[in-house]
Amino acid sequence: PVLRLLEAQLQEQRREHEEEMEALKNQMDLMQEELEKQQQAFLQTLQLSPEVQVEFGLQQEITRLTNENLDLKELLEKLEKNEKKLKKQLKIYMKKVQDFEASQTTVPVERTPHERNMQVAVQRKEKDFQGMLEYYKEDEPLLIRNLIT
């Protein structure tokens, strides 16, 4: 039984290795084709006049910079979106702090230690609250299904 198990594991590893080798071989073939295309383009570029070579180089650099610019614009949009989200959260937290401070000024100072501990517990419970929907953990699959449909 142990020998069969080891033999099966060895065959499985061999199969995985062969699949990995095949994938790497395919990847290498694709890279070889790309290299050949680049070499042909390079040789064609060398046959062009110096002025055309410069123009071709400039076109390639313009293409590269354009792609880089588009990537940077996309990154900027993501960062701006994140900044708006964070500003919105900051406003919400500032409002909560102001509400909390306002509630503290209206609360009488002569509280017993027990009452203060209860208030702290309630405040901590509110801080754990996330989202706008309250539900029981058991109802989560039903809620998700209803949201999807």
Automatic annotation (TrEMBL):
Coiled coil: 3-103
Alphabetized UniProt keyword annotations: Coiled coil
Protein name: MYO5B protein
Organism: Bombycilla garrulus (Bohemian waxwing)
Classification lineage: Eukaryota, Metazoa, Chordata, Craniata, Vertebrata
